[in-house]
Amino acid sequence: MLTKSINIIRVDEGLAERQDDILVTEVSVQINLNGTEIAMILASPYKEKELGVGFLYTEGFINNVSEIRDFKQDGMSLYFSIDQERFDKENKIQKFITSGCGRGSSFAIIRKSLLGKKGEIIPLISSRQIFELMRVFQKRSELFQKTGGVHSAALCNTSECLFFAEDIGRHNAVDRVIGEALLNNISLNDKVLLTSGRVSSEIARKVAQSEIPVLVSRSAPTDRALTFAQELQLTIVGFARGNKFNIYTHEERIL
Q1: Are residues 92 and 150 in the same domain?
Q2: Quick check: helix, strand or coil at residue 123?
Q3: How far is 239 from 242, CA to CA, in rounded Å?
Q4: Which tens digits make up the pLDDT trace of 63-101?
Q5: Which of 43, 68, 78, 157 has its CA 20 to 30 A from that of 55?
């Protein structure tokens, strides 16, 4: 269940009364790779495989979903298998503390194909299309409207949102839509990712790692996120609300 009801005391203008309130539920999702636990994520309890696949991809453990040799799930424990040689290589990567949810480790790597990659940036999406996508995005946030306790993410083309997720962690929502796209063999390099949350360096890195060219948020980016984005040719749009937004990096993609 994504929500649960509890009885609370609400105080309004000094008047206290008992009433029911809806809370978002939170679980620990354990991700195991080749028999080793690599992450324990605090998340909303649904589409756990999609979350796990997205995490493996955005953290650089796999380059495509076909590298996953086996998958099993036992409750909230996910078990993935990949080539042992690749796992041994990736598992030596130094972790660092993040500003996100969960156990707080991120595998700070970028695909070698992206480092130093300087291709021609071409227009992808218009301002009008961004406004419309964000309007649709906001209307789909049903869990947030009920609880006020989740973040949202969506993977879109220029005309519609293809995959949508809500989660207690903004990183999880991003990983889940990316994982769902990969499992459905949807290309990422011509898509737009929408998020309701702050754009930290981890979020920017996950999106750049996935070769998604445009990231749009209702909120603000951090300075380090913009450093990543500038170097990796990621277009970041922030404060996308109503008919306004700010373009922070690589404005060439916005018509």
Answers
A1: no
A2: coil
A3: 9
A4: 999 999 999 999 999 999 999 877 776 665 534 334 344
A5: 157
